[in-house]
Amino acid sequence: MPSASVEYDGYFGMGYSYDSPYGALWLSSTILPNLQVTGRFVSISGIRGFTDVPGEFGSGYGRYKDKVFDVKAKLWGETALLPSVAIGATDVLGTQLFKGQYVVATKTFGAAKNVELSVGYGNKRPDGLFAGARWRPAGMPNWAVVAEYDGNDYTRDYRALATGAAERGKGGPAVGLEYRWGWLGAQVARHRDHFSANMYVSVPLGTRQFLPQLTEPPVFKRKDAAPRPTLAQWEASPAHGAALVQALAKQNYKNIRVALEGTTLNLTLNNSRISNLGRAVGRASGTALAFAPVGVQSMRITYTKLDQPIATYEIRDTGKLADYFNGIIGREAFLQTVVVRYARPDDRIADGEQGLLAGIKDDNGLGFHAGRDGNIVQLSSEDRESNRFKIVPKIGFLFNDPGGALRYEVAALGTYDRKLADGLFLSGAVKLNLIEDISDATQTSNSLLPHVRSDIAEYRRGNKFQLNRLMLNKYTQLSERVYTRVSAGLYEEMFRGAGGQIMYLPRDSRWVADLSVDALEQRGYKGWFDKRDYRTVTALGALHYRLPYDMTVTARAGQFLAKDRGVRLEFKRRFASGIELGAWYTKTNGNDITSPGSPSDPYNDKGIFMSIPLRAMLTADTQANAGFYLAPWTRDVGQMVASPGDLYDMIENPRRDMTSYDGLGNFAERADEQNLAAVNPPVRTFGNVWPRFNARIEQSAGASPGVPDWARGTGLAAGAILASALLDKPADRYLKPRQDDGAMRNLGKFGKNMPMVLAGAAGAALAFGDERAQNTGIIAMQSVAASVGLAYGGKYLVGRARPDEERGPWERVGDGRSRAHAAFPSGHSAVAFAAVTPFAMEYDAPWLYGVAALASVGRVADRQHWVSDVVAGGVIGYAVGGWLWNNQRKTPGSSLSIVPGLKSVSVAYQKTY
Fold first, then answer.
1. In this structure, are 845 and 881 located in the same domain?
2. Whole-prediction pTM
3. Is 777 found in the same domain as 726?
4. Which domain holds residue 377?
5. What is the predicted pLDDT for the residue at 913?
6. Which of 83, 464, 536, 666 sits 20 to 30 Å CA-CA off 497?
7. Are 513 and 542 in contact (CB under 8 A)?
8. What is the mean pLDDT of the chain?
9. Phi, psi dihedrals of residue 707, rounded to the nearest 5°
10. Which DSSP category does 737 fall into?
11. Alpha carbon distance 665, 340 (integer Å)
């Protein structure tokens, strides 16, 4: 049974539990403070997934299996008098076999706070009252004894008679024993007639380093360099510059270029191993300081990726640089001599200017390496220009084919990357399948869309040795913060073609915009140069926006691989360890109606992913990552081609490092600076907004409108509703024969979803905005809550039938329909106007009312409401939002006004000093 406890921010756990007849492989993570999500892959004993007949197609799949997604949010924490309270929902997506909602309160007792009591109430699963108690003996903190009252009604479970779940009845008492040791944990419980068990491992994503970096190469020391030459000696002999390049190359720096301009030493380079930008530049500047000629007064170091300048560090006083490395001056004093900025095209030292480095020896022999970049073993070589060859083992797993729940492949992957000219790269990859059973999947795709992904088994049945990629990529920086890529060749195992990408980085480090266009042709199954008849053009514009807590939201819109058009939303959070956890959801017009979709509920592409930087788990720094994603692998809707070299991936991490705090990161690797925010950023936590809610409610209650205001407002509202009622019948007569039109269906979906989006945006302003936005978010959330209450009160009072019941405009709801489902007033309209009104008033943005109004029109177009229903709902939302804003707003120090016109948009900003 759930409690109100939520694991600490950054928690990630995985495990397996068995509670007859259910077995579950699960993953759980606290993706935001006080918000925990859990994904479960549940198997059900007693029923087959596809067929009960041995030997028939689908018999190898075994037990019935279902994917389940749960979420729990803590509303507020425990106080001296009050318990902590959380709400949760189980199985919120998909088949919803285990769907339920609950609210639970938890309080701890005892001097050691080692006794925990929980009481809650659930709907469906758990069903009704449930409770639990946990005792951790003070002398044995790793152990806990648990007693619970199980509130589940197992007789209602899916095919409960066949699975034996019905024999468990309506839950009842249970006792359990828990043990936790470090990252590992186990639980065993005794119910009335059976045992259950759970084992798990938990990984603290907030831990920055799981293993000590014992094998990290030391910082270059001045004593290891030859005596420094004079400026004249440096200019006269290229050997001095060559010595600096050699020293940098031994520290994994690549694409190194050095030039002396007067008394300024310029360097262009990147590092293939060090993960932090500031640390990479810091080590390079320390090495350059040891070799720089006497008389050099400043340095300019430009960090590049794929020959493109990303960030430039201007160090204006090399004496202060030396003092900082030696601990003579502190960070603040050193910062006065450093400028960290976006790189410009002319910052990079071109290849043609490298005469002084010609003929430098490059030791890049081919060899076996164990443990490098997280690979168990690899055969590889890499030279000073980032030309690299690598052969590594590759293991992959696929789930949920009717012929077997788990598919696998083991292969050898060979990659080759070579620089051909300035910004021009050749990239190739071949794969040799050693053993696999993906090709044994005999179920043919049931997709009605072009088979852009669902024929994966056919590609595995091709040659064991395949050419997966052969690309030419040309990268260019057009100007500061504008980058382009042009590509042609074999993109991936399924598609080839030509295309490009352009990316723009505003000075505001929160967002990035890019556009990718690719003309593609589907490759054949053999895996070489054969092809199929399918051709398409994909065009996707993307907006990447960084939120607090190191979260990034990405919206992609355009045409996808199956020629379906729509939007893909991605969310990810990066934790202190560098581990990224995220999810995506795609909504297109692909209309994927075959299973798991249906004509009434088409399938939309979705999934979760995790990216793991291996530096946290190795004894030396590395830029290598491992990762996985969970998503259906036999669907075609909302799919994208593998990018030949995504520009956003190229700049995301360096830009984050450059724009975080002072941009220096772990620059000098000094022990006395490891607690600086720029070196180890503090973990931000959500403040408790509940006291602010209470203060706002009391403030509003003390400033309620007087009788004249109530009378005037009620009269205006009644007049508007009565006038709109005249349109009820004419509007429905017009819409009834058009309810199946695509435009009307889309408008109906917009009306259904947009109010929830607007309420979510208000919540995001409360969680992530500045003080002004947070205050407005509080008002908006109060408005939404109050408006929902008033709207549902009106539904129960009036009980008006909806248009799709085919009854009269003011008849009561029919038999079998709840008054909560009544039409008057519209709850969606009330929520939409309640959410936008405080923001429209605070920021002088009347166009927000247009968004809410369009959502209301969508409810009428979908024949879920009469015109007067949405007018009444809008009046409620507007009145409540306006009243709360007028009584709770603060006098702003600035205002922003955005007013769109027919052919223009006016933007005005005013600041009060």
1. yes
2. 0.77
3. yes
4. 367-645
5. 41
6. 464
7. yes
8. 84
9. -60, -45
10. G
11. 11
